[in-house]
Design goal:
Chains A, B: Residues 92-180 form the Transcription regulator PadR C-terminal domain. Chains A, B: This is PadR family transcriptional regulator. Chains A, B: Residues 7-80 form the Transcription regulator PadR N-terminal domain. Chains A, B: InterPro entries: Tscrpt_reg_PadR_C, Tscrpt_reg_PadR_N, WH-like_DNA-bd_sf, WH_DNA-bd_sf. The structure is a homodimer of 189-residue chains. Chain A is elongated, with a radius of gyration of 21 Å. In chain A, helix 1 packs across helix 4 (73-84) and helix 6 packs antiparallel against helix 8. By secondary structure, chain A is mainly alpha-helical. Helices cover 65% and strands 7% of the residues of chain A. Chain A has two domains: 2-84, Orthogonal Bundle (Arc Repressor Mutant, subunit A); 95-188, no CATH class. Chain A has a three-stranded antiparallel sheet. Chains A and B meet through helix 1, helix 4, helix 5, helix 6 and helix 7 of A and helix 1, helix 4, helix 5, helix 6 and helix 7 of B. The first copy, chain A, binds a DNA duplex (30 and 30 nucleotides) through helix 2 and helix 3.
DNA sequence: CCACCATACTCAATAATCTGACTAATCAGA
DNA sequence: TCTGATTAGTCAGATTATTGAGTATGGTGG
């Protein structure tokens, strides 16, 4: 049941349409949750019926009419309840890790390729997140912003994303390096 | 469809029963995939029907009879196919991140509590993983083991788990610290 | 001796997520 | 001018994952 809360949390900052929300929850960006458009539209409908968000139609002359949503008091109360409850631990579920687990029984070339790719992807997200941080804190330095900024939630989750992607990148590079060295050693013998 | 491959990868090292597998895929331990017992029993049944694993009953005098499974050649071929295919990126889906995203609209005390808890959990996993590494490489030092060890897949995923949990722990601590400082600053004003 | 935990599983039902296709309009580039 | 990308959604269906309960036996702590 956390998708609904993720949607509520995303709508705290700005009014958003389903489409904009879908962009935010997409692969490249999602720094605190991931979901597909279909899920989001369904969840928005449910949340509106439950009175936790309110939508208003915005007619655009050049683009299709969109529906912007904002969180209601009931929605905020729901988020509050959610926050009080214990968090369920987050678990790993990663194709690439499964492949590495099987590394000794499986073609090394493909593994190295995919590790390199993943490392590059992580680096790209790091660059993006870095820019995002700058945009959020503006002129202020990080220490100052975190102490006195008015809205630090997204900044903190972005920092989380950075920590995660750094770990990801470094592990991928290290692992690729190990596999390459073994390949080279095997080739020499 | 990666659960089946995770099961295959887990069975590469040792013959395991569904119950043992369930232990390994449990929260506390799972360092490359997570799943519940029911899923695993179901997957084992499917894999056996598909000829990718073979089970044999082991009668025990003091415990219920168990069924141990090992990977067949067909299973290995399936893993090989899986490895060749591109990995789907892994995404974040974490209750705690959602709560932090909403940090400015929600009770800070609960957040700090949950961050501290999560940090302690991450540290516990780090200790566990550290011991696991030692047990896997035995007397050898890491560099040597990674270059010449015969089975390094599980070692590499364990290193992945360590990187992940370190990031997790550090971010939780940092975030809790920030929230505490803000709480203190607000109390003074 | 009795409650509880560990081993070793099974079954059913619901909830969450993903795959894939479809509508319909505008805009930018070759 | 035709193609493809972008905006803004909707629908059906399949697959995965979670929740909750139940079976049966043996060992352990109080």
């Amino acid at each position: 049941m956390a998708l609904r809360h993720a949607v509520l949390a995303a709508l705290l900052d700005h009014e958003l349409s389903g489409y904009q929300l879908a962009k935010a929850f997409d692969l490249g960006v999602a720094n605190f949750w991931h979901a597909l458009p279909q899920q989001l539209y369904a969840e928005l409908a449910k949340l509106e019926k439950a009175g936790m968000i309110e939508g208003r139609d915005v007619v655009q002359d050049t683009r299709p009419t969109k529906r912007l949503f904002r969180v209601t008091d009931a929605g905020l109360a729901e988020l509050e309840r959610f926050t009080e409850a214990a968090s369920k631990p987050s678990f790993l579920r990663d194709d690439l890790l499964v492949k590495i687990q099987a590394a000794d029984h499986v073609d090394t070339g493909h593994l190295i390729e995919q590790l390199t790719e993943r490392a590059a992807f992580a680096q790209a997200k790091l660059d993006l997140f870095g820019q995002l941080l700058l945009r959020m804190r503006g002129e202020r330095d990080e220490e100052e912003f975190l102490l006195h900024g008015e809205r630090i939630g997204p900044y903190l989750t972005c920092l989380g994303g950075i920590t995660y992607e750094q770990g990801n990148r470094d592990w991928c590079r290290r692992t690729a390096e190990v596999l390459e060295q073994r390949q080279a050693a095997r080739a020499r013998s």
